Amino acid sequence: MTVLKNFLAILSIVAMLLGVTESCHSNEGENMALYVSIRGAVNIPSVEGQINRVLFEGGGFGTPDERFRITFEMEGKTMNYGFWNAGSEWVIKGKVDYAGCHFEANPKFPLSFKLTGKGLRYLSGIGKVKSASGKETSFPEKSVEQWLLVLRSSKEVDNKQGAAQALGYLFRDQKSGPEIPKVIDALKIGLKDKAWQVRRDAAASLGQIGSEDASDALVPLLSDNTQDWWVAEVAAAALFKIGHGLSTLSIQKIENMLASKNPKMRLLGVQALAAGAHSAVMLLQEMLKNEKDISVKEAAEKSIERLK
Hints:
This protein is an alpha+beta fold.
C-alpha cells in the first residue's frame, strides 16, 4: 500500500509542468498557500550539492501514513538523494539546487515545505525559489502577529504547522522579552492541536525558545505515540534543551515512565527529566543501578550531566 501511494505521488509530480511556479490564496485569507512546482522522475533525482549535513527524521514507517522530514544543507558537487513520499517535509538551509529548482534560504530561518500533489507547499521560512525557466517566488518575513494569528485561528493544518515552526525560529534562545509570554501561550495551545504535525512542531519550537514556563505543558506529549513516537521524541528533546522548570507533579508523572517495561517509554522519561530538579538526579541515579538497555543508560547519564 505504501509503495503504491509513493508511486502515485511521484506520477503526480511528473505530470506537472517543468519548473513552473504558481500561487493561490487559502480560503481563510490570513495566510498565503504557495506551491512550487518541481521536476520529478521515477528514478532518484539528482541533487546539485555536496551534502554537508542531512537530518533525516520520520514516523509511521511501514504504514500508509509514513512521513519523513529531510533537512538539506549543501554546497559543492553532485550527489543523489530522493524523498518523494506525499506529505513529506523538506527543509532547505542555504543555497540548494534540487528537483529542477534553485533554493536560497536564510540559514537562521530555513525554508520549510510539504510535498503534495500540487508540488512543494510552503510552510515557513525566509528565502526564494527560482524555477528552471527563471521564474522566481519569494518568501519574505512575516510579522510575529501574523504567525500568532495563524496558529491561534487557522483551520488548515499546514498553516498552523508553519506558524508553529516560524515562532521557534523567530524567538530561538530568547527566554525572556515582551513578546515571549504570548508566543509561549500560543505554542502551548499548539501542543493540544488535533494534528500531530502541529503538536510536534509546537513542542520543537518551545524547545528552541528554551523558556521554563513551557516545561510542564510538554509532559503530556511524552505519551503521544503518534507517528512511531515522533511527537513524544520531540517533546522529550525539547525538555532536555530547556533543562529546567518541571514541577514536582510533572516529575512524579515522569517517574512512573521509568518503571515501564517498554524501553522507549523509559528513554523518553530519562530525557525529559533533564528539565527536573535535584530530585530528578537522584531518580536517575537510582534507575541506573538496574537499567539494562544501553540507549536508556546513555540517555540517563546525559540527563544527569545536564542537571549538574
